[in-house]
Amino acid sequence: MPHTIKAKDKLLARVRRIQGQVGALEKALERGSECGAVLQQIAAVRGAVNGLMAVVLEGHLREHLASEAVSAAERERDLEQVVAVLRSYFK
């Protein structure tokens, strides 16, 4: 069973909080809020997304790369996938 299924409720709770933060950002922009408030909200959204990424990435690494039940070929494929995702994420 994939780690994202095992932790589905916690991950969905994080996503819902992110949705709330993005909604608050949208409202701040619609209201013409001060730049500082908008920047703070953007930072909060980014932090929340980074936290979600870290949790899912850690689970993936532990389940797919650290598991002895996974073949060397599968680990290599998963490693390349993670590297590609991280390159994209940090652009």
Number of helices: 4
Distance between the termini: 31 Å
The portion of residues forming beta strands comes to: under 5%
Average pLDDT, all residues? 91
Rg of Cα set: 17 Å
Series of H and E elements: HHHH
Q: Which consecutive residue ranges, at least 5 long each, have pLDDT under 50?
A: none
Features:
elongated, 91 residues, 85% helix, mainly alpha
How would you sum up this structure, described in words?
There is one protein chain. This protein has 91 residues and is mainly α. It is 85% helix and 0% strand. It has four helices and no strands. The chain has helices at 3-6, 8-31, 35-65, 72-89. It starts with a helix and ends with a helix. The relative contact order is 0.11.
Task: Describe the structure concisely.
The chain is built from 4 helices and no strands.
Reconstruct the topology from this structure.
Elements: H1 3-6, H2 8-31, H3 35-65, H4 72-89
Helix pairs in contact: 2-3, 3-4
